[in-house]
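// run 5 | inverse folding | seed 20
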């Protein structure tokens, strides 16, 4: 039987967290079907993606256990008894052409398949700017769209589909390069998972009804967070940014389920249209395997409808900021009430510390799942 390894290399903001959460929450069931997820969790796949691209010193600053992760997972894949294996993280897509080739060669003699989930480029840029701000940046949308920015996780290195195809496609035959456009909202809610599962060759029944992860911010909320970030100089570490800026502020208190959509300036929108058209042309020319509607990767006419980023008023920002302060004050009250009720009457440091730990559980429970 042919042994296969699937490399789900991205792109970011294309339902990757949704698909990964399904895989990790059904890891045993997938293994029973013959598909191994090596490692202990999502973070190791993140480290593996960065491990093939970054220096050991830079990776060690992220986490001392991160260097060498790809080789550890590769060893687990090589020793497996299952016919198939899956590595999945969106930051694999930033690898250079040589790095992509080395990854595929390292997984030999397995038959390697590359899987790319994708969306139109205007949607990528809008979501990518939000994601950059949620990770502590003060950059404007226009600064983020700078065409010269290609080397970071929040840049055209991960948002430009044509570039990703050109770097990864030479490493595998075209029939083993799978492009999965994100389905439209008119399709079944679990269609993205169905398409992904069809490529992996799994047929079991899996709960694919999870809520969408990494929810978007409204236009006012993302601009407010961008300005707040300028005052968070003490929150520079990966853990601080992931837990407090992204987890607590952005996804805990600023997430917006009905905010006004925003549009790109005409020149940015034209650039995105050109990038999307170029990507579709490359996919067709190379004869890659597409699961879904390839035209979904083109910028839709609706991308030009909505508000511009520069239309956010100080009044709107003040309103969002006052609501944020009120929510945060409610958290402080819960923490204080918890500390007083659990601290006991002895007034000792041990009782007070215990009470505060208990009071923190309600807040921390929202943060544990944050992916920094």
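// decoded
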């Amino acid at each position: 039987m042919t042994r296969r390894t699937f490399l789900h290399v991205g792109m970011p903001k294309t339902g990757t967290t949704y698909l990964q959460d399904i895989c990790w929450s059904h890891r045993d069931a997938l293994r029973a079907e013959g598909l191994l997820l090596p490692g202990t969790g999502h973070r190791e796949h993140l480290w593996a993606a960065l491990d093939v691209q970054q220096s050991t010193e830079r990776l060690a600053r992220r986490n001392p256990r991160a260097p060498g992760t790809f080789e550890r997972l590769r060893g687990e894949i090589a020793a497996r008894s299952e016919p198939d294996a899956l590595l999945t993280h969106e930051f694999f897509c930033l690898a250079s052409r040589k790095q992509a080739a080395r990854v595929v060669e390292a997984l030999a003699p397995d038959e390697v398949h590359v899987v790319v989930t994708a969306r139109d480029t205007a949607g990528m840029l809008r979501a990518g700017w939000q994601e950059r701000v949620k990770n502590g940046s003060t950059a404007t949308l226009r600064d983020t769209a700078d065409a010269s920015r290609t080397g970071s996780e929040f840049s055209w290195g991960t948002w430009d589909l044509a570039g990703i195809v050109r770097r990864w496609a030479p490493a595998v035959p075209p029939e083993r390069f799978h492009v999965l456009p994100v389905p439209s909202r008119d399709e079944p809610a679990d269609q993205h998972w169905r398409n992904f599962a069809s490529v992996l060759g799994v047929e079991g029944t899996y709960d694919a009804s999870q809520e969408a992860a990494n929810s978007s911010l409204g236009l006012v909320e993302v601009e407010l967070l961008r300005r707040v970030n300028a005052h968070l100089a003490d929150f520079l570490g990966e853990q601080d940014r992931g837990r407090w800026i992204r987890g607590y502020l952005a996804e805990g208190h600023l997430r917006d389920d009905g905010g006004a959509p925003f549009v790109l300036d005409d020149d940015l929108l034209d650039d995105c249209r050109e990038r999307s058209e170029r990507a579709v042309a490359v996919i067709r020319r190379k004869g890659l395997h597409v699961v879904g509607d390839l035209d979904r990767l083109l910028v839709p006419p609706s991308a030009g409808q909505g508000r511009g980023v520069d239309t956010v008023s100080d009044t709107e920002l003040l309103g969002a900021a006052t609501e944020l302060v009120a929510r945060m004050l409610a958290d402080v009250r819960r923490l204080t009430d918890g500390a007083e009720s659990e601290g006991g009457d002895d007034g000792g440091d041990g009782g007070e510390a215990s009470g505060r730990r208990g009071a923190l559980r309600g807040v921390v429970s929202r943060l544990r799942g944050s992916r920094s």
